[in-house]
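Input.
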Amino acid sequence: MIDFSKHLRDGDGIWWGQGPAEPESLVNALLDQAGGIGELLAFSGLSLNPRLGTDVPESLRIQSYGGLGELRRLSQSGRLEVIPSHYSALPRLFAEGRLPHDVGLLQVSAPNAAGEVSLGIGVEYAADAVRHTRTLIAEVNPRMPVTAGAPMLALSRFAAVVEVDRPLREVSTREPDAVDCAIAALVAGFVEDGDTIQIGVGSLPHAVLTALRGHRNLGLHSGLITDGVLDLIERGVINGSRKEIDAGLAVTGAAMGTRRLYEELATLPIEFRPASYTHHPATLSRLRSLVSINSALEVDLFGQIGSEHTGTVHLGAIGGQADFSGAAALTGARSIIALRSEARGESTIRANLRGGLVSTSRADVDVVVTEHGAAVLTGCTMAQRARRLVGIAAPQHRDGLARALGQQEVAV
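Output.
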């Protein structure tokens, strides 16, 4: 393996790629050796590595933009330092040295004849961070596909290289249930033929993608893609023919799904771009047909969205939701928040956000959808918004919400 003492010193900062692109062999070696190097600060995005949830030495502080994947367990133990940030801000934070950037760890494809490697399914913030990183170390994996859209990196750019041959981590979702499908059918009704969609990952987003099979000429511009997106591209539903920019292409920064998705990427009209492009306001403002479709942990009676915190533990992130929701509501077509009306027997529509954190502004939400209906909030007063949201709450919680509404002083 690698000797990190040759590349890291006490006080250094380190970052690595996220999701299935996470260089797990390098990260695990770092976890083994960090205690002997000194105090280190690391930045990680969504992690699928179980060791990051339980096996982090005291000398290694972990920062992230949210509590995603295995980082949730690190948050539960009080070891995760969350930096509240729009995803679109990450490139600037790296450029200004506000995120750890002495050493960067990447999982890359096998080199081509010119000695160049691809960031594969993990372009996103990594492609922006590499430009501001002193030392890069590569985990070269022949299973990592070569993807189009982002520049290739010369293998000579890396101070050290470790060769592995392991399958990319697969992320599958549970099959959508009746509640998911009911929500998805309502969401699909707000998407018009020719719209460009942005959507997340999970059972509910998968159900929405399935519900869109009857649509035509959709575009895609999203932070990540899943198997559900692959299905719509292969069916010809997503073809990008009416996109205002990147016509004919699906544009993303990352892929997270099954082996089938990873193996077929090279044959599809998909381009992987850095976060400085996919999430940048200047890019999103050109997509006049943009429909953002996002989930949430909770919504208050004014339409403010909580997607990060339960009050004690980080379970999510601001991420790209605020970027896409804001653009879709202001310069695009519409911003949709979809969620189940209950979680663990409690209403997800609440008088006040339990987490106390507003992830997405009330002004950046056009429609909130649950299995009980859709609350169109655009152009509504505060009182109208609250009444409409009470109307799509789970029936057994509506009386309590109505009483809470009556006790609140509604202010503009």
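The chain has two domains: 4-163, 178-407.
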